Amino acid sequence: MRIEEQIVGSVHLCIGQEAIPVGACAALDLTRDAVFATYRGHGWALACGTDPVALFSELLGRETGTNGGRAGSAYLSDPDHGFYGENSIVGAGAPIAMGAALAARYDGSGRVALTVFGDGAMNQGAVHEAMNMASAFDLPVVFLVENNRYSELTPIAAMVRRDDLVSRAGPYDMRASRIDGNDVNAVRETISEAVATCRAGQGPVLIEALTQRLVGHYIGDAQVYRPHAEVEQARAKEPIIVLSATLRADGVSEHELAGIETRVRAEVAAAATAALAAPPADPTAVKEHLYG
Amino acid sequence: MGEITYAQAINAALRRALAEDPKTLLFGEDVALPGGVHGVTRRLRREFGDRVFDTPISESAILGGAVGAAMMGLRPIVEIMWADFAFVAFDQLINQAANVRYVSRSRLKAPMTIRTQQGATPGSCAQHSQCVEALFAHIPGLRVCLPATPQDAYDLLLAAIECDDPVVVIESRALYHSLKDTVDLDAPRSPIGGARIVRPGSDISVVTWGPMLHTVLEAAHVLEGDGIDIEVIDARWLNPFDTDTVTESVSRTGRLAVIHEANLTGGFGAEIVARVVERGVPLSAPPLRVATDDLRIPAAPGLQRAAIPGSDLVAGRLLSLLKPGND
Question: For residue B188, is it within any domain?
Fold first, then answer.
């Protein structure tokens, strides 16, 4: 839809990284917890429970979009499902998540804030300010790094002395773990433990989930910076392949797996069709909601 | 009703807000146990416990923390110790706080108050002296005010805290302990916005704000001796800006001057002149802006006096509006 220019503007896909939002959201209580994601956040919105029609509608600039067309692909939010939004500024969600966790100290909600960002954000000052303050005050924040090896178009390994980003937890004395981000069960278990730590008042947790993008940073990214074989190798280990193998080993039949795929593809296609049929965002309302 | 200082008026407003609304929080660098580097937040920690707390020297965490807490329904009041320090965390104000309501169509909001202080005082260095109000006023989604009196320091801060949007309250360090007046601490809360005619006059409408108000009043007093009657308007709020009060005044006097401590180019004075001119108010002299030259701010008091308009310079420039050639 982006290539056909039904969707316009930058679109950042999370193909290859799906296990992280799906596993993490399964470990959260989204009636009270708060998720702060990045511009690569469509999967996070869906995993939180956003209606796929509302998501497609937002990408298409429709009135029925999560944000009525005001956010677009890279800055959408759906707080009714605990999704406090994508963020198009790298690392900027971390201090905000820390603030949501701070609020939990006073509002009795028991909220845990989860902020997810890429490896590139680990070199942003705001992330470190948030990690330090959350640690100093034992705030319930899960800092989750989706390490897909590329900070936009540049290999993270070339931009850091040590590429095990989980080691950044040390100076803040945070609990931390580094996991296979393509294993949805490992993600769910690790985030469950982190959430329990946070709810127990034992301070923030840093998790580095290793994964790979199967696509470019944005649609249209030629990925000249990436070895050709890398993506092909990554395809063999991508989360849906991994999960399918696990399910087969658990006795799920090919027929059932094929049925799931058919059903999901039909659901996505129907959502896209419904969104395309929705009315465009109302231009007469463009000046509304600047102030209360 | 005794007199209190500008700083004490701010302290009283914070106390009232913290007492009346359990959703308010107060945090920033050195605001709690030390009571603020300028003593503005003294004793509040003792009275309100952990709703008042110190933070790391991390402006992004302070402002981002306020955005997150505000999105969750609290009403954080944060201090950026010097306005110059806001630059290290502009992202959280401009890309984050200012966008919350608009992009979510009011499903989310960020009712946060950012207190800061600005301006040059003797010896203050170039990174502790700038007047940055025009930068904030340029950002849709932020409200901006600059109290110039103890009563306004009290009233405007309370209005800011009650506002459901992010408000930047720019205080004057020069006035914290030097300016004293009676303050009605039981005054009903006023909404945001509204300029105030501080001194009615008939010859020139002068719009100003912050500590420059007092410089302008001195100049007006001097000119009164020459039989010149200056109307002085304290803008108080740059967003929302009270264009009506200014144009009504200029339509009476036929002359407009805007005077601010911030430097000239891109200053808010240009915006005010443009608004008055665009409304077609008849003018009997070209509009005048008096501001600090486009300079960095030096520390030495003698250099600061040479850079920043004082009352003599202001009086001279105003006189030139009435008597061309006298500039």
Answer: no
Answer whether A129 sits within 8 Å of B99, measured CB to CB.
no
Question: Looking at per-residue confidence, does A222 or B5 come out higher?
Answer: B5
Q: Is residue B156 part of a domain?
A: yes
Q: Best residue in A50, A96, A131 to probe B by mutation, most B CBs within 10 Å? A: A96
Establish whether B128 is a catalytic residue.
Answer: yes
> For residue B301, what is the domain's CATH number?
3.40.50.920
Domain that holds residue B147: 3-182
- Across chain B, mean pLDDT equals 97
Q: Which two tokens stand for residue A216?
A: 């470019």
Q: Do B226 and B89 share a structural domain? A: no
Round to whole Å and give the CA distance between B295 and B41.
Answer: 32
Summarize the confidence of residues B197-222 as an average pLDDT: 98
pLDDT band at B247 (very low <50, low <70, confident <90, very high): very high
Report pTM: 0.97
Q: What is the mean pLDDT of residues A227-235?
A: 92
Tell if the CB–CB gap between A79 and B107 is shorter than 8 Å. yes
Domain assignment present for residue B191? The answer is no
* Residue B227: Cβ-neighbour burial (10 angstroms; 0-12, 13-18, 19+): exposed
Q: How many domains does chain B have?
A: 2
CA distance A148 to A181: 9
Query: Over the Cα atoms of chain B, what is R_g?
Result: 20
DSSP label at residue B96: I
Pairing of strands A113-118, A141-147: parallel
Q: Which entry of B128, B177, B221, B260 is annotated as an active-site residue?
A: B128
> Residue B215 region, left (φ>0) first, then alpha (ψ -120 to 50), else beta?
alpha
Which residue of chain B comes nearest to A135, CA vs CA?
Answer: B56
pLDDT value at residue B326: 47
Report the C-alpha gap between B142 and B192 in whole angstroms. Answer: 12
Q: Give the burial string for A4-33 (b: 16+ CB within 10 Å, else e).
A: eeebeebbbbbbbbbbbbbbbbebbebeeb
| CB-based contact B67 A101, cutoff 8 Å | no
Same domain for B91 and B159? yes
Q: Which of B72, B92, B101 sits opposite A95 (nearest CB)?
A: B92
Distance CA B284, CA A66 (A): 53
Is the CB of B316 inside 8 Å of chain A's CB atoms? no
* Cβ neighbours of A3 (radius 10 Å): 9
How many beta-carbon pairs under 8 angstroms link A with B? 142
CB contact under 8 A, A290 and B92: no
Contacts of A87 in chain B (CB under 8 A): 96
SS (HEC) of B202-224 = CCEEEEECCCHHHHHHHHHHHHH
A chain contacts of residue B64, beta-carbon cutoff 8 Å:
92, 94-96, 98-99, 126, 129-130
CATH of A19-284, one of 3.40.50.970, 3.30.300.30, 3.30.360.10, 3.20.20.70: 3.40.50.970
Q: Which of B158, B182, B206 corresponds to the end of one domain? A: B182
**DSSP, res B65:** H
Question: Do B178 and B68 sit in the same domain of this protein?
Answer: yes
